[in-house]
Structure formats: structure tokens, C-alpha cells
Amino acid sequence: EVQLVESGGDLVQPGGSLRLSCAASGFTVSDYVMNWARQAPGKGLEWLADIYSDGSTYYADSVKGRFTISRDNAKHTLYLQLNSLKIEDTGMYYCRKGTTRGQGTKVTVSS
């Protein structure tokens, strides 16, 4: 059974940083394209970043240069490093494998 469990969300001030984690089970993370997405309050799901099996990464323009997606194959874990956070980065963050996603982790950026 595929399971994804996100963690690491928190309340942070603008300009701050967070690292989100996504613990995966039931499959090998390096064998699949994995991605992060977020949903701001009252808005739809927004794709943020992909990481491919070969390690290639791609980012939405809204987060390029500020967020970094990575994975630790030995730990079966996907990460999203969030730097230079803005108020508009507030939302629920999800890791995804295809159409499967976890329960999400909440990021609130506020002064």
C-alpha cells in the first residue's frame, strides 16, 4: 500500500525557512516522479516542484530560486526546503506520487 506522510509545517515569519519532509512507504521513491504541491486557503492545488528518477528537478516560477526539492533514497523520504518565505506561501503542502498524496502539512507565514 502506498503511503505518504508529510511533516515539518509550522508558523514562520516572512523571510524565514522551513524544511518539509514526506515519508514514503509501499514503493521506492527513486523509481517514480515525485512532487510537491500546495493549496492556499480558498484556492486550488498548485504544483510546486518535481523530482525525477534521474534526479532532475523542475520548479514553478512562483518558487524557483527559493524552494528546493530533494530526496533521500535510503530513508525513503522526499524533502522540500523552503527559503525566503512570503506570506503568500501560506497553505497546506502535499507530497504526491501520481494521484496519491498524503494528509498534508500546514505552513503559515505571518509576522
How would you describe this protein?
With 111 residues, the chain is mainly β. The protein is built from no helices and 11 strands. It has strands at residues 3-7, 11-12, 18-25, 34-39, 45-51, 57-59, 67-72, 77-82, 91-97, 100-101, 105-109. The radius of gyration is 13 Å and the shape is globular.
Short summary of the structure?
The chain is an all-beta fold and 111 residues long. It has no helices and eleven strands.
Beta-strand proportion: over 45%
The stretches of 5 or more residues where confidence is low (pLDDT under 50) are: none
Rounded to an integer in angstroms, the radius of gyration calculated over CA atoms is 13 Å
Q: State the shape.
A: globular
Helix content: under 10%
Task: Give a quick set of tags describing it.
single chain; 111 residues; mainly beta; 4-stranded antiparallel beta sheet; globular
Secondary-structure map:
Layout: E1 3-7, E2 11-12, E3 18-25, E4 34-39, E5 45-51, E6 57-59, E7 67-72, E8 77-82, E9 91-97, E10 100-101, E11 105-109
Parallel strand pairs: 2-11
Antiparallel strand pairs: 1-3, 3-8, 4-5, 4-9, 5-6, 7-8, 9-10, 9-11
